[in-house]
Design a protein that fits this description.
Blueprint (H helix, E strand, L loop, with lengths): L1 H13 L8 E6 L2 E11 L3 E10 L5 E10 L2 E2 L5 E4 L4 E7 L2 H6 L7 E10 L5 E11 L15 E6 L2 E9 L5 E10 L5 E10 L2 E3 L1 E2 L1 E4 L4 E9 H6 L7 E10 L5 E4 L3 E4 L2
Antiparallel strand pairs: 1-2, 2-3, 3-7, 4-5, 4-6, 4-8, 8-9, 10-11, 11-12, 12-17, 13-14, 13-16, 13-18, 15-17, 18-19, 18-20
C-alpha cells in the first residue's frame, strides 16, 4: 500500500546513520563523562550513549539542565546515579515526538548542560557549562523553523506561534506552540486562565527556552476536562501567558487573554 511504502521511505531517511566520534565531554573533580555513540531504541528513540565514571568518594547523581538538538530545546527526562568509585553506561534519550514536531530527522548538533548533585541529599554540586557535540550529519542538519500557524505573541525577541491541535497526544488533546527566543536572555513561559470553546480548562504547560534557541512544546489538556465540558472538537482557545526570565524569575510580561482558533 502507498502508506506502507511511504512509511518505509521515511524509515530509510530516518536511519541515515548518525554517528559521533567518541569523545570526553566533561571532567569535573573526579567525574568523567564520555560520549560513546548514538543509539536508536525501538521504544525510546534516538539517544546519546554516555560512559560516566565516578572516581570520587561520594555517590553522585547526574542529570541535564537542558538538552538542545539542532537549536531546539528537547525534553530529556535524564537522571542517573553513579556510586562512589563506580562507572555507568547510560543513554540520554531525545523525545521522539518532540523531534518530529520540530521537524528534526537529521540530528547534527547536540548541546547538553549537565547537572551534578549529591544523590543522597539532592544538593547541587555543579551546574556545568554547555558541552556541544557535532554528529556526522552536522552539515545536513534540519534547522527549518516549524513556525507555520497563528502568531499569538511577538515582542522583544520572544515569538509564540499556536499550531495545530493534536488529538492523539499522550494525555489527551494538546495545543502545540512553536516558540523562539532571540531576547538576549533565557526565558521561561507558562500559562493560565485557559478556556476552550468558552469553557475553563486546566492547562499543563511550562517551557524554558534558552537565548538563541527555539522549541515546539505542547499545552496539555486532560481528556477528563474536555469530557466534563462536552467538548468534542477544540475550536476556540483563549489563554494568558506568563513570560519570565528563567535565571532570575523576574516577570518579563504577563499577556492579557490571547485568543486563537485551532481551525
Amino acid at each position: 500500500s502507498m502508506a506502507e511504502e511511504s512509511s518505509k521511505e521515511t524509515e530509510d531517511a530516518d536511519s541515515a546513520d548518525i554517528s559521533i566520534e567518541e569523545q570526553i565531554l566533561l571532567e569535573w573533580e573526579g567525574v568523567t563523562i564520555t560520549a560513546k555513540g548514538i543509539s536508536d531504541d525501538m521504544i525510546y528513540g534516538k539517544g546519546l550513549d554516555l560512559l560516566i565514571e565516578n572516581d570520587t568518594e561520594r555517590n553522585i547523581g547526574v542529570g541535564c539542565n537542558a538538552l538542545i538538538v539542532n537549536n531546539y530545546m528537547i525534553n530529556d527526562l535524564f537522571s542517573t546515579t553513579v556510586a562512589a568509585g563506580k562507572r555507568a553506561n547510560e543513554t540520554v534519550y531525545m523525545t521522539t515526538n518532540q523531534l518530529a514536531a520540530a521537524g528534526i530527522t537529521n540530528i547534527g548538533q547536540i548541546e547538553i548542560y549537565f547537572h551534578f548533585y549529591d544523590s543522597d541529599s539532592y544538593e547541587t554540586l555543579y551546574d556545568a557549562e554547555c558541552v556541544t557535540l557535532q554528529t556526522s550529519e552536522y552539515a545536513n542538519m534540519d534547522t527549518e523553523p516549524q513556525d507555520e500557524g497563528y502568531e499569538v505573541y511577538n515582542q522583544d525577541g520572544i515569538r509564540i506561534v499556536g499550531k495545530y491541535v493534536d488529538e492523539n497526544s499522550f494525555w489527551g488533546t494538546a495545543v502545540l506552540l512553536y516558540i523562539e527566543n532571540t531576547s538576549g536572555r533565557n526565558v521561561g513561559i507558562n500559562c493560565d486562565n485557559m478556556s476552550i470553546n468558552g469553557y475553563m480548562v486546566t492547562p499543563f504547560f511550562s517551557s524554558t527556552i534558552y537565548d538563541g534557541k527555539k522549541t515546539v512544546d505542547d499545552i496539555t489538556i486532560l481528556s477528563s476536562d474536555l469530557e466534563e465540558n462536552s467538548i468534542e472538537t477544540v475550536e476556540d482557545i483563549e489563554v494568558n501567558f506568563h513570560i519570565y526570565d528563567a535565571d532570575s524569575y523576574s516577570t518579563i510580561e504577563d499577556t492579557g487573554a490571547i485568543s486563537f482558533s485551532a481551525r
